[in-house]
Structure prediction request, 327 residues.
Amino acid sequence: MSYERFLRPALFRLDPEAAHNLALWAISHGLIRGRVLDDPRLRFSACGLDFPNPLGLAAGVDKNGSAVNRWAGLGFGSAEIGTVTARPQPGNVRPRLFRLPEQRAVINRMGFNNHGARDLAMAMSKRRTSIPVGVNLGKSKVTPLSEAPDDYLFSYRHVARFADYVVVNVSSPNTPGLRDLQGVSALRDIVMPLLAEPLSRPLFVKIAPDLHLDDITQIAMMSKEVGLAGIVATNTTLDHSSISAKQDQQGGLSGAPLFEKSTAIIRHIKSVAPELVVVGVGGVFSGADLKAKLDAGATWVQVYTGWVYGGPLMPYRVLSEYLDLLD
Ligand SMILES: Cc1cc2nc3c(=O)[nH]c(=O)nc-3n(C[C@H](O)[C@H](O)[C@H](O)COP(=O)(O)O)c2cc1C
Prediction:
């Protein structure tokens, strides 16, 4: 059954969040399957982990790990679960997720709706996947910025043991003040306690595309200095200049309009800190997009919006296109 012709029109008739929840429910129950492309040219190792391919699921799709064991079967080479916060929280009021099909984009202001770190630990303990699985940590809305390090540490202590890598998310535009934690000294206060934990995991920081390049350089230098594995670049953007006033909504913009900027940021990080692993994310829809991010220096690439528009066979298609480009 063609996703574009049948399933997508049906899902897109629903409210976007209802469609997301329905699709996630169907995936977690094995009712929607993808196709796996197994090819030695796609395999690679990074951070001591073996990846079957370089296209991963981005954070935000599976916030509670309800489908943690399904992403490999949908063709992804890795999956990032979360964002999880220390405490369970409902997120912002609905509606908070908007499709912009003509722009191949999405705007969201979900606000880290999730079941909290304790629940995620339960879900992740049932994990039996062949692909690397990361967990993305955020700050609970009720926790003041000054207590952010404890909030991240609480989540880390609950979920890191079930994860292959951990991401400190300081770049969602939908938690008041969160992006201020991208300042090098605030960020250092968050990551140092995590790095000091006896249970060690490759640690990443996920950054916003709206930072100045100088600030990104500073984050890269600090990451290198303290021993982070790398940087996930990037989260959604607050630059809505490509969106007409009629279609605009408050929140983070993702998808095609983010592609160039997020790719340029990968290139920038690799130019100032080549030893860092960069996970590239933002506006990937095709094999050519995947290749552009890898060529810019990403070790692997993630997708959210492109998968919403492309459907369950999207990873297979994108990886096939990528292999064709290599030939
Ligand atoms: C609806 C929605 C929810 C998201 N939730 C999260 C999240 O919880 N944590 C996070 O780090 N990123 C989140 N993101 C950002 C994505 O992981 C990704 O960084 C961004 O959307 C750019 O990639 P894309 O253009 O492929 O969507 C979310 C994105 C969308 C569209």
